[in-house]
C-alpha cells in the first residue's frame, strides 16, 4: 500500500486506543520589565494563557489530527484541570470514556511560565503512584470492550506517573498479542521488562542509554548496537531510537536497520516531539504499512 493511499483512504478507518499518563500543559505568556519590590525575582505580566493536551493525551491528539478514531484511557482527578482536559479532548474528537476520575489524586498538570518566549519556571501538579486495583480494573474493562468492538492498534504512553505499572503494561501487551493488535510503547525509565513483547518501542537516545546501562555517543554504530541488544533481550519487534539532530534509527526483525537523518530546526520548546513519532508509528502499524 502506498503512503498516499494509506493517508487518503485507510487512516480515517483506524481505531486506536491510547493508554497512559494523560496531562494538561498550560502556558502563561507574558513580558518581564522589572524586578519585584517584594523579593529579588522578575515580575511577569501575563498577557495570554494557553492550555494544550500533554503526555498520553498529546499522543491521542496527534492520532486524531492524522484522521484516526481515537480512544484514550488513564486516570485524572475530579478537578478544574480535568474539566479543561475534557474540553480539549472533545475539541479534538477524542473519546475519553476510558479516563477514570480518582478521588485519590489530581489531574497531572504542567504549568510553564514564559517571558519573551523564554521559559522562566515550570510548576507541576501531580500525585504519583500506581493505580488502585479498582481503577486498573475499570481501565481493563474499558479496553476489553474496545477490543470486542474492533481495535487496530494500542499506544502505551508512559510518563512514570502511575498508570503504566509493570503488571498493567504486561496485561495490555498480552491482551493485544492474543488479538493480534500491534502495541507501541513510549517508555520511561531504565526498566523495560514491563514492555516485553511489544511491537514498537520509541525511546530517545538518553532513555535508550539508561535502558542499556551504558552511555554511547550519538553515532549510528553504537546506537545500533545497544538497540539490537534491547530488542533481543525484551523480545521487542522494532526499536526506534529518536536521536535529536541525527534523526532516528530503527532496528527491526530480520536484521532490518534504518537510519533516517533529520533536518535540524531552531526551536525553543521541544515538548511533545516524541509523542508525534509515537503517533505516526502506531498509525502506520495499525494500518498494516510495512516497515520498509
Explain this structure to me?
The chain has 292 residues and is an alpha/beta fold. The chain contains eight helices and 13 strands. The chain has helices at residues 3-10, 56-66, 80-91, 133-149, 166-178, 205-212, 220-233, 273-286; strands at 15-20, 22-35, 42-55, 69-77, 95-102, 109-115, 118-125, 153-157, 183-186, 200-201, 238-242, 248-251, 257-260. The chain has a nine-stranded mixed beta sheet, with helices on both faces. It has a four-stranded mixed beta sheet with strand order 3-2-6-7. Helix 2 crosses helix 8, helix 4 (133-149) runs parallel beside helix 5 and helix 6 (205-212) packs across helix 7 (220-233). The mean pLDDT is 91.
Summarize the structure.
This protein is of the alpha/beta class and 292 residues long. It has 8 helices and 13 strands.
Keyword list:
292 residues, alpha/beta, 4-stranded mixed β-sheet, 8 helices, 13 strands, 33% helix
Number of helices: 8
Q: For the largest sheet, list the strands in their spatial order.
A: 5-4-1-8-9-10-11-12-13
Structure classification: alpha/beta
Strand content: 25-35%
Q: Could you describe the largest sheet, including whether it forms a barrel?
A: 9 strands, mixed
Radius of gyration: 20 Å
Helices and strands, with pairings:
Layout: H1 3-10, E1 15-20, E2 22-35, E3 42-55, H2 56-66, E4 69-77, H3 80-91, E5 95-102, E6 109-115, E7 118-125, H4 133-149, E8 153-157, H5 166-178, E9 183-186, E10 200-201, H6 205-212, H7 220-233, E11 238-242, E12 248-251, E13 257-260, H8 273-286
Parallel strand pairs: 1-4, 1-8, 2-6, 4-5, 8-9, 9-10, 10-11
Antiparallel strand pairs: 2-3, 6-7, 11-12, 12-13
Helix pairs in contact: 2-8, 4-5, 6-7
Amino acid at each position: 500500500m502506498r503512503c498516499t493511499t494509506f493517508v487518503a483512504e485507510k487512516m480515517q478507518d483506524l481505531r486506536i486506543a491510547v493508554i497512559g499518563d494523560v496531562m494538561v500543559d498550560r502556558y502563561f505568556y507574558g513580558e518581564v520589565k522589572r524586578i519585584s519590590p517584594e523579593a529579588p525575582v522578575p515580575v511577569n505580566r501575563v498577557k495570554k494563557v494557553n492550555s494544550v493536551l500533554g503526555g498520553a493525551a498529546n499522543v491521542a491528539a496527534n492520532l486524531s489530527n492524522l484522521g484516526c478514531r481515537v480512544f484514550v484511557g488513564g486516570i485524572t482527578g475530579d478537578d478544574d484541570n480535568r474539566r479543561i482536559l475534557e474540553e480539549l479532548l472533545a475539541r479534538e474528537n477524542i473519546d475519553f470514556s476510558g479516563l477514570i476520575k480518582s478521588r485519590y489524586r489530581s489531574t497531572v498538570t504542567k504549568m510553564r511560565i514564559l517571558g519573551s518566549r523564554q521559559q522562566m519556571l515550570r510548576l507541576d501538579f501531580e500525585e504519583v503512584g500506581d493505580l488502585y486495583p479498582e481503577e486498573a480494573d475499570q481501565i481493563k474493562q474499558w479496553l476489553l470492550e474496545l477490543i470486542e468492538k474492533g481495535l487496530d492498534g494500542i499506544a502505551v504512553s508512559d510518563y512514570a506517573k502511575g498508570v503504566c505499572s509493570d503488571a498493567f503494561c504486561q496485561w495490555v501487551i498480552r491482551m493485544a498479542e492474543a488479538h493480534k493488535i500491534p502495541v507501541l510503547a513510549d517508555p520511561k525509565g531504565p526498566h523495560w521488562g514491563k514492555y516485553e513483547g511489544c511491537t514498537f518501542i520509541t525511546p530517545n537516545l538518553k532513555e535508550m542509554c539508561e535502558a542499556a546501562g551504558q552511555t554511547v555517543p550519538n553515532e549510528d554504530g553504537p546506537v545500533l548496537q545497544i538497540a539490537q541488544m534491547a530488542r533481543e533481550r525484551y523480545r521487542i519487534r522494532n526499536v526506534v531510537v529518536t536521536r535529536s539532530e541525527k534523526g532516528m534509527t530503527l532496528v527491526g526483525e530480520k536484521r532490518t536497520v534504518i537510519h533516517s537523518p533529520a533536518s535540524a530546526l531552531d526551536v525553543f520548546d521541544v515538548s511533545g516531539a516524541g509523542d508525534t513519532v509515537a503517533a505516526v508509528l502506531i498509525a502506520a502499524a495499525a494500518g498494516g504499512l510495512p516497515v520498509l
